[in-house]
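Sequence of RING-type domain-containing protein (Pristionchus entomophagus).
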Amino acid sequence: QLFHPFSLSCSHLFCSGCWLSHISHSIHRQRIPDDCLEVNCTQRVSISAARGILNNSSLLRYEKAMMIYLRSEGRLLSCPQCKRFSCSTGLSHLEPSPVLVGCTRCSLAEHFPVNCEIFRQ
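Predicted 3D structure, token representation.
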């Protein structure tokens, strides 16, 4: 029996401790986004999935690493008119597209998928 089971949308269940270790190791190796623990499963660990496992400081590091990854791949796009960020085709499964023109928390331009603290840096 699994201790505090957790899965991505692919439904492969592993204990929360194993997920935490897996994601934390990925952050340390700068291998973001990471895949499911199941062998040969290509489901990615989204920021919203990581929220269910990571503490606040680890989540900040994961979000920052995700932003760096998306920029390096040329897949973080910004609309010149409304300034919203979105992932280009092929990474839409990481997070849904933003629907707000600006961030409701910090009042800056929408900075999806990164939280306010990291965006200000």
